[in-house]
Amino acid sequence: MASMAYREQELYVSTSAGREDAEDDPSSSANSIRYRKARSRLINQTIFRLTFILFFYLMMRAIVGPVPVGAEGATAAAFFFLLVFPTLVGQWLNWKSALKGIADLGIIGTLSKADLANVSARSMAMRNELQASKPYIDVMHDQIGDSLAESEREVIEVIQQISTLNAKARQQRERIAASIKSGRELTDSTHQRVENNKQIIAAIDMQFETQIDEFRNNFERIQGLADEVAALTPLIKVITSIAQQTNLLALNAEIEAARAGSAGRGFSVVAFEVRKLAVHSTKAASDIAARINATCKKVDQELAESRASLEEHETSSAMSQLVGDLNGMQSEFAKNGQLLLDVITEVDANYAESVERLTQALGHIQFQDVMRQRMEHVQEALQEMRDHMQNMSEKAYDFVWEGNFDPTFDQMLEAQKDKYRMASQTITHLAVAGGQSRNTNDGPMIELF
Amino acid sequence: MAMKVLVVDDSITMVMSLKTTLSMNGFEVETAANGQLALDKLSAGYRPNLIVTDINMPVMGGLELIPKLRAMPGLKFVPILTLTTESDAAKRDEGKRAGATGWIVKPCSGDDLIRVIKKVLPGA
Prior knowledge:
The complex is a heterodimer. Chain A is an all-alpha fold. Chain A folds into two domains: about 1-150 and about 365-435, no CATH class; about 165-360, Orthogonal Bundle (Helix Hairpins). Chain A is built from ten helices and one strand; from the N terminus they run ααααααααααβ. In chain A, about 10% of the residues are buried. By secondary structure, chain B is α/β, with parallel strands linked by helices. Chain B has a single domain, classed as 3-Layer(aba) Sandwich (Rossmann fold), CATH 3.40.50. In chain B, strands 2-1-3-4-5 form a five-stranded parallel beta sheet, with helices on both faces. In chain B, helix 1 links the parallel strand 1 and strand 2 (about 30). The longest helix of chain B has 13 residues, at about 10-25. Chain B is globular. The termini of chain B are close together. The interface of A and B includes residues 361, 369, 373 and 439 of A.
């Protein structure tokens, strides 16, 4: 009977009571309450059964009568080993199984011995599985670590590229500035030379103008002389006319002298000489007229050439053209100088803009450090989880374990709130797990004290 | 003459990005990977015009470093800016009491950083 009682021993653990208690008091562990209740019930049950055995013994004594003398010891031993001991052993085993069952399953319903054996096997499997979580979590931990290292390497590469880019841009800007400086110096120097040349050319031009003026004066003077020489031509005619008349008079005088005979002989010689003189005068006048004509022609020719030359100088002075060219050159240089100034201004502006943009880009790179810190926090949490699960694996097959976790997952999750450094971490936590933040008093992103 | 800035941070990416940012904007930058290394550099005679430090660092963090800096000759009035992911007001107050000039929460845009630096360093 006792054996039957042992075999059919059942644990009556009110699951609904445990659940209600857990719901009534969420801050305490539901399993812990179940353990206490199960233990209490088992103790009460044991006391009840022992009392029942005692009552059974007394009833037997009443029915059968007193134990024969000398058989008290054997009767007591038989009573103990057949009834009391199996009951106690059965209750002890039930108690252990109940504790394990509660730990593994939250004890639902009634567990038979076969169920308990099954629970034990599952506990073993659970322990093995929990232990196997370690390499899984370690792999995930290292995956995060490697990703962080990789992103760090890439970010460093980006920063180096930006740094190189900026160095080259600055070098280019300095080179352009240097070339523009040289160009500007060359322009200034050429401008100065042009100015000097202009002054020299102006002086030469002035002298040239003076020479032209003198030339013009000389030309006019020569023209006057030529005119005066030309004016002698009518006088030659007068002289020729006088000579012809003198010749005619001398001829008449010679005729009259011949008529006078010997008295007019002397006068005839004079008349002859006068006529010869008149012929000479006529010839001389004719020669003078010819020379004057030749001179006048030559002077006219020279004057014509001089006039042409003077007019050419007056209309298109080579010096004026040179001055004009130099002025053009100067304005061209001024234009180029402005162009260079525009270029350097633009290069400066572009460089300033590129520095601004690169500065912005480098600011965004801080995300890597922020991400690193968040990921490192996750890695720490994973390690905590790993350790906790290893601890769970040890408890899974521990039949004397009382069912308390310290800390529990709930407590570990709550404790994470104190470890957060960034508002974003707290926001994510609250969005997923709910509850309230302890550190809601975040200030501005930038604060000067 | 370029202003000198000491950057103290254990993150290599932060150190490099800050060094490049500040150099591009005309500053001369020295770096240290934690508070102790910064102290070593300053003990050797280096005197920056500005210090930018992280808070959470190995060996010696920013909140431990700042009072030590303030006790060093020539650094009593040098601006010290913290650049950290810590946004909690209690930490911020701790930094203020330690002697920090300002508190900047990461990530901070490059423009904002340069603007704050120019504010605490009028000659920059």
